[in-house]
Amino acid sequence: MEQQGSLLGSLLPLVILFAIFYFLVIRPQQQQVKKHKEMIESLGKGDKVITNGGLIVEIIKAEEEFFKVKLDANTEAKLDKQSVLRKVDED
Questions:
Q1: What would you measure as the largest C-alpha separation in the chain, in angstroms?
Q2: Which CATH number belongs to the domain containing residue 89 in this structure?
Q3: What are 79's strand-pairing partners?
């Protein structure tokens, strides 16, 4: 009986440490990834976004894996959906 108690006593701190790590690191990161994915899926024609490189571009067309974007009046390019950092909120 004492060995079971000492085994539980030695594993309990590890279980508590994992639970703290999960709720402080893993879960918030999963929620952030889910929120970013939903934001990317909601983007459409006319939305302005900031890329990971810092460019502000306007979406012309949403494709399966890419966005066709307009950099300025004469320049269009394809942008990988995962390169979108955030949507520009124009107030």
A1: 78
A2: 2.30.30
A3: 67
**Per-residue model confidence as pLDDT tens digits over 15-70:** 999 999 999 999 999 999 999 999 999 999 999 999 999 999 999 999 999 999 99
DSSP sequence for 35-83: HHHHHHHH--TT-EEEETTS-EEEEEEE-SSEEEEESSSS-EEEEEGGG
Q: What would you report as the CA-atom Rg of the chain, rounded to the nearest whole angstrom? A: 22
Amino acid at 87: K
Reference 57, options 67, 76, 44, 70; nearest CA is 70
Residues 13 and 31 reside in one and the same domain: yes
